[in-house]
């Protein structure tokens, strides 16, 4: 299996990671969400003229460390330097190949009514950390990006699930809300979330309150959401919790037959809110 | 021997299901004429023949004496040869074919039925479901076209012989009245506990006893369930508020009759006519027991001083929790026999608020009501006639010499509004998001749906989608043009774009507001459109909401607007009005209470505003009112849309005549109203120790003055002498009144809303009018 992704992030270094580790984890996780074990990566840089060489070295070291931690090899690479203004510092592209896990039958379209919706950990950490670091909002001192590889967690789930793991998705850009909307649309099912069950760290909630953001729309880089056969849900949850990256795994809702393609949330006061995709950019400043 | 005359008469308009055929029948019989009458796809068709003078009198009386519920749009008369009819007959049933006849709105129990209700000798004595061709449930029970009995929720009840006789008697009050029923054959009232178990005894008497004892009773009305407590019972009202998670929004009150209502509120002739009219809306009226006192800030606003101790001050007591901080009270009178019986039994007014939790739509299906309201109501006064269309109470605010519709629903929907010009192709307009309605337009008719509510609520969204199908079927409309807002994230926009095989028309939000006002008034424009609103998607990537447009139905030009201001934290600035105060004042007025109250975040908000991070620019007038509301300590955080601005109005001293000035600046583009001048003037006054009520008054007058000055400048530039006022901010009666006065004094002709709300509930009508006008060109 093959997956490729380009990475641009400002700032390039942030609590919990940098553009190098992010580029490794991003592609590793894309493969993991397809039910594959990543084997090898290629790496390509587009460098804006004037980028300190030291920064490039730091990023490269970070790529190497992240790949080693993931048990994947970087087998080929390329570097291009472009003129000032033709790129924003550094763009990174990774491509990965992986081997499908035996017993993995995950696809976005495989969700079924009745499935449990499982989430591996708290949401919003990556997006808020990046934003806070970039804008100097102060939350970054007590927060870190959740950027990390998820392929071992995914493998453990698939093993424990015995074909009961129907879909896997890492809710990156657009957050949990967009990921669930995409899965609901692809599977032709509805999703009902339970508001109190969705884990939102206090600092993320505080930052979202300040910025008027919905935590469900904030990007993540180290958690996954799965639709799992209800009969296997407990076993899968136990397998998730046995791993550090899934220690806080929890059930946040249910797949339903009603309202196909639509995600709703039962709120704290018992009303039933439509959870939509993120439209446009999350943060718009003005000149 | 007089000559015989024969005419074919075609009557269009609201003439079906309103007793029109029986009326024609008795008119023809009285005049000794022969012929027949029947419903057809467009209305009522009459063939009538007889003496010349008789036919002439028939034609005159047809329009003069038409039933109260009918609304004749057009009468076409064609003369012909007498066919030799014998006697006059009513043909029943409906022909096949596309249907363009109308469905009337639900109508309050008529005086004739009330007499029967009170008559111990009548077989419908104290029967809660009494109705006739002139009153009763209509739209809420119609399942589809044609709206004859089999297609209503009354189909479940077979008529007894007596009822069938009345139904078929062309001379009677119940001829072809689809909801005809009686205790022997019709729906039955029951009182149930929250588990659904029927409680014994007379349901009305028991429900009244429970209410008197301080319990919450859910009552099934025409368009959905209400929750009731006695209006004077503070403990019960507070408990209801807690259980509903409705923290601050005022409750409506139902009084038994006008005399009882007069003990609660000041009621002039306009208000009395609204309260007793057939639509029976909630009418917002000045309350008699108290008004916000105006001195304190911070604490919950002006708890009514008299009622707080249970002592009425010049009227009946309304518990403080019913409408905390409001000078006005939402009042209505009974509109079904059930309400009449309950209120008569109780002999005191009741709170009658929507049967829902928080911002959910009201429950209208029995099983669902038990589930959703089971934790709120102690008992359910319910019955077995199903409600097909959920319909809220309408809300109207009378103004001197005029009214403003704030929520258009029961008693008004689905009756169409007449358009000046027929639309070329049928139009569906999908409205906005929070106060959602849709509009279907065909020919010269615009059917604006009942108020649906917040589309972000899943149940409301479903009602929106299914409601469009229901209206299309009911009125035989197949939209070819679909209009929607420019906001890509509105669920109404999403739905519009999912419809295939039609032409899509994106309409700018504030152009739609002004077009709604034009359509409401039957005016083609062009006008100077003043759209003072919350937020709407602009065409320049910013959020609009304090706009001066040169507009007609086909197009607009943005000629002026309030100065743009960053919203620190975007949506958070809507929920927390103090952020707008921070955006306007930054650190220019040290020592303000509002900054102290929000000390933990004030600097952050100022930082966001200064850097522009996550702070979209807006020219919203609604957020300007919010900024002043928080500045004066009235409302830092809101729990429902518009709360801060509404409470600012409630607080303003109407006797204040001073007005803050706002500069009008011009560069090359639109005129800019420096709204920040108003906020800074208010902050100066506050620092100097001026009373917040006086400041609020001067601010309202200042806004009215700024609008007028801008319109005068635009009149010089454009030659336009008419101004249309729309947008949610014009729900504010004080601002509307002051603005209209000043504009008229400056020589303008002023258009304002009457039949559809100035808020987003009216938006779909404006979108439809614009899409139709653009379709003409
Ligand atoms: Fe609006
Ligand atoms: Mg990716
Ligand atoms: Zn009647
Ligand atoms: Zn009967």
Automatic annotation (TrEMBL), chain B:
KW Nucleotide-binding (keyword) present: no
Pathway where it operates: Protein modification; [NiFe] hydrogenase maturation
Record key words, sorted: Hydrolase, Ligase, Metal-binding, Zinc, Zinc-finger
SUPFAM superfamilies: Acylphosphatase/BLUF domain-like (SSF54975), YrdC/RibB (SSF55821)
GO molecular function, one term: ligase activity
Residues in YrdC-like domain copies: 201-411
Keyword Hydrolase: yes
GO biological process: protein maturation
Active-site residues, Swiss-Prot/TrEMBL: 21, 39
Catalytic reaction(s) noted: an acyl phosphate + H2O = a carboxylate + phosphate + H(+); C-terminal L-cysteinyl-[HypE protein] + carbamoyl phosphate + ATP + H2O = C-terminal S-carboxamide-L-cysteinyl-[HypE protein] + AMP + phosphate + diphosphate + H(+)
EC number of this enzyme: 6.2.-.-
EC class of the enzyme, as a word: ligase
Acylphosphatase-like domain boundaries: 6-92
PANTHER family, sorted: CARBAMOYLTRANSFERASE, CARBAMOYLTRANSFERASE HYPF
Protein family membership: Belongs to the carbamoyltransferase HypF family.
Protein name: Carbamoyltransferase
Organism: Nonomuraea rubra
Source species taxonomy: Bacteria, Bacillati, Actinomycetota, Actinomycetes, Streptosporangiales
